[in-house]
Amino acid sequence: xxxxxxYFAQFKSKVETNTFYKxxxxxxxxxxxxxxxxxxxxxxxxxxxxxxAIGVDWExxxxxxxxxxxxxxxxxxxxxxxxxxxxxxxxxxxxDVGTILKEFNELKKHWNNKLLEVxxxxxxxxxxxxxxxxxxxxxxxxxx
Length: 144
What we know:
By secondary structure, the chain is an alpha+beta fold.
């Protein structure tokens, strides 16, 4: 069972007043590491991961595709500012961002519970599962 992280990132331009968002998936435990070494990102943008959820197998990919269908690409960066994954960026109104964050929280709960059912702890974060000294498979997952 392969763990994949679905993330929702915010990009703020260092040179303009542009703010945009990106949905993506990565095999890295820290979604920000996905952008390491991207020269144009370091030069032109401040990046924050607003939300992420760890899923297994194809689930994160399917969810990413749902977001791409729901939020179509609606702007383009100048050629000199582009980076790997630029085709998945969108501008979003504030209320959509709030809705997406709520969806990620629900998705995180659902996927974490699925991971616990099969005894698979997301990236070794066992400290979150020690509530009330219950065996891992009986605990509700929070704060991941």
